[in-house]
Amino acid sequence: MFMFEKALVGSRRYWIWVGFLLGVILFGFHAYVREHELGLMITGLSQDVPWGLDIAQFAFFVGLGASAVVLVLPYYLHNWKAFSKVTVLGEILGMVAVFMAMLFIFVCMGQPWRVLNVLLYPHPNSLIFWDLSVLSGYVLINAVITVTVLSAERDGVAPPRWIKYVILLSIPWAISIHTVTAFIFSGLAGRSYFMTAILAPRFLASAFTSGSALLILLVLLLRRLGVFDVGPEAVPKLTGIVTYCMLVNVFFIVVELFTAFYSRIPEETESFKYLFVGLDGTTNWVPVMWLSILLAVASLVVFLVPRWRTHPRLLPLACAFAFVSVWLEKGFAWIVAGFTPSPLGVVTPYRPTWPEWSVVLGIWALGTLMLTVFYKIAAAVKTTAEAGYVTAITKDAVYPGRVA
Amino acid sequence: MKITRKQFLKLGAGSLVALSGATAVAERAAGDRASPEKSNAASARRQYAMVIDTRKCLQRPGCTQCMEACHQAHNVPYINNPDHKIDWIWKAPFQNVFESYDSPYIQITLKNEPVLVLCNHCDKPPCVRVCPTGATWKRKEDGIVTMDWHRCIGCKYCIVACPYGARSFNFTDPRPYIKHLNPNFPTRHEGVVEKCDFCAERLAGDKPPVCVETCPVKAITFGDVNDPSSDVRKLLGAGLTLRRRPQLGTGPNIYYIV
Amino acid sequence: MRDRAWIVAGLALFFALFTYPLWSRALRGQRGEETKLALLMPAHQADCVMPVTYMRASHMKLLILWRREVVRENIHTFRAYDGKVYNISLTGTCLGCHSKAQFCDRCHDYAGVRPLSCWTCHVDPALTAEKLK
Fold this sequence. Notes:
Structural class of chain B: alpha+beta
Strand content of chain B: 5-15%
CATH topology of the largest domain in chain B: Alpha-Beta Plaits
Number of domains of chain B: 2
Shape of chain C: elongated
Order of helices and strands of chain B: HHEHHEHHEHEEHEEHHEHE
Radius of gyration of chain B: 21 Å
Radius of gyration of chain C: 22 Å
CATH architecture of the largest domain in chain B: 2-Layer Sandwich
Helix content of chain C: 40-55%
Largest interface: A-B, 61 and 64 residues
Strand order of the largest sheet of chain B: 8-1-9
Distance between the termini of chain B: 71 Å
CATH class of the largest domain in chain B: Alpha Beta
Largest sheet of chain B: 3 strands, mixed
Mean pLDDT of chain C: 85
Strand content of chain C: under 5%
Oligomer: heterotrimer
Helix content of chain B: 25-40%
Shape of chain B: globular
Number of helices of chain C: 6
Low-confidence stretches of chain C: none
Order of helices and strands of chain C: HHHEEHHH
C-alpha cells in the first residue's frame, strides 16, 4: 500500500539510521508523557510567557511546509524543467513539516485529550480553528499529490487529469497556511510586537529562505549518499531563489526595526530591545539574536558572490547558515519577544528546559524518519522508472500536454 | 499538463475570495455582541461593572482581604513561584497598570501603593474572540466573561490575547496548594486556564461578588452600568474615572477612581 | 514460503492479545462469580431527584444537563418530577444525599466504569484541605 514495501528494503546503514531515529522518538515521547503527568510546570513556560519553544517551532515548521511552493510553482506554472525531479522532494517535505507543526501545537496544550473540542464546538472566530483546518488540508493535499504522481510514475502511466487541479490548489493553499499562522499572532491588540501587518509577508519570506536552504542541503545529501540525483540544474536555480528570499527576509526585518526605532514608541521598541540588547537586565536572547543576524549576513555574502555560491563546500555551509539563522529567529527567539514585557510591564525570562528540548528533539526525529522513509520510496520509484524497468516513458508522457 | 497563467490567476482569485469570506465570518462572530448602544436598545440586558476607589484602598496599605476572600471562595491555589502563580484578583504597581498616566513626578502614594486588578469583563473581549472551542464567552444576560472549565483545552491562546494579564494557566495540579478547601466550588486541574468570573455562582443567589462584600472600606462598588440608577453609574457620573488601556477598544468594565 | 513461521507466530500473538480479557481472569483465579453490590443508601430520604429507574440508567445524562444549565445557561435550580426544587450542584446536592466513596465509586467499580474525571475538580465533602497534600 502506498508503495511502502519500498521502504522495507534497505542497506544496513538505512536500518541503523531508522533504529536511531526510533530511539530518539521514544526518548521524546517519554519526556512528553512526563510533561503531562507533572503538568507544564516542568517546562520553562510561565504565566507571562505562555507560549514558547513549541509554538515557535510550530510557526517555523508551517513555514517549512509552505516553502514547497518554491518548487511547485516554477515547475508546474512556469515549466522549469530543472525542477522535474526535485519537486516531489519539496512536496514530501511540505507534508512532513506541516504534520510536525501540528504535533507542536498538540504538545503545548494543557489538555491534549480534549483537542477534539475544536471540531466538536467549532468556533470560526478563532484563528486556531482555521489553522487546524488549513494545515490538515495541506497535509492531505500533498499526500494525495505525491501518492498519485508517484504511483503513476511507478506504473509507467500518465497521472489522472484531475491531479492537475489539486496541484494548482496546493499553491495558494501553501500561501494560506502560513498566512493564517501569522494571523494567529498579528491580530492581537496589546501585543504590539506581533501586531504588525508585515508579519505574514515576513513569515513567508523567512519560510521560503529556510525551506529552499534545507532543500538544497537535502538534495546535496541525497546525491552524496548516492540515493538520488535530481540533476545538475536544480541546485543553482534553488540557490537563486534562496538568495532573493534571504534578501527580502533581511529587508523586512530592517523595515520593522525602522518603524519601531524611528517612531520610538516604547511599546514598539521594547521587544526589539529585549532581543538585541536586553531589557531590565535580562539578556539571554541577545547572543541568540546576534548569532542569527551574523549567520544571515554571512550566508548572504556567500550567496551574492558568484564564485562562492557555486563552490561545492561554501554553498552547503551558506545554506546551513541561512537555515540556522531563520531557525534561531523564528523558531526560537521571536515568540518570546512578543510576550516581553508582559501586559503589566514585567520581564519574565524564558529558558526552555530539558523536557521541552527532548520533546522538540522527538518531533524532529519523527519528522526525519518520515522524510527518510518517504524520500526512499520516491527515490526508488524515480530511479527504477528511469533505469527502464518500466516501459520507457518520457517525462512528457507522464504529464501529457505540457509543452516542452 | 498545461496550465495557463489565466487559469492560475482565477484559482488564486477564488481562494482570495474564500479567505476574505472567512475573515468576514470571523469578524461577525467576534463582533460587538454586547456593545453598550446595542444593549441599551435591548434595555433588559445588563452589563455588570465595578468601580474601584483606589483612594479608599490607600487607607489600608498592604490590605489583601478581598484577594484572600476571593481565592478562598474559588479554591484558587497559593503558588509562590511567580511563574506559575494563579490570580483572580491581585495588586500591581500603578505605573504598570496605568502606564499612560505615569510620570516622573507622580504622587508618591500612587507610586508606592499597588492597584487592585482583575478581569475587566470587556465589552469586546479578545480572549473570547480567540478561544477555539467556546470555552470562554461573554454572557448575553449580564455581560460577564465566563468560562467553561469542562471544555477548555488549555491552548493558552486567551492568555496570549488578553491585554490585561488577567488569565492564569494551571501549570500543575492546583489541589496541593489550596489552603482552605471550599467544597461548594470545584477546584480546577492541571492544564486549564482560569480567571475571575464576577462570582457568577454568588450572583445567581443574589449575593454580590465576594471581594465587594469583604472589603473593609467599601472601596469596590458593583452593579449594572446599563442601569442609570445603579450605584456604579452614580459614581461614574460624579467624576473622572480611568480604565485600563481603553485605546485598545476592548471596552473594559472595571473603572478606577484615582 | 520462508516466512510461514513468522506469519503463524504473528497470528498467534494477535489471537493471544485479542482474547486477553477472557484468559486473564482465569489466570488470576477469578471465576466470574457474582459479588453482591452493597450501596450505602441515603438514610432519611425516600426519593432521588428523578425516578430511581431513570437514575440508575441515565444519571450521567442528568449530570451533563445540569452542567450545561449551570455553566452555559445560568440556570441554577432544578424542579424534580415530584415538584421538589433542588439547587443544581454535583457536590452540594448529589453528594448531599449520597456518599461518593460508598455509593458512586462502589457502583462504578462494580460496573467497570472507568474512574470519573469529575473528581479531579469537583470536591467530595469528605475531603479536606489537609488530605489534598
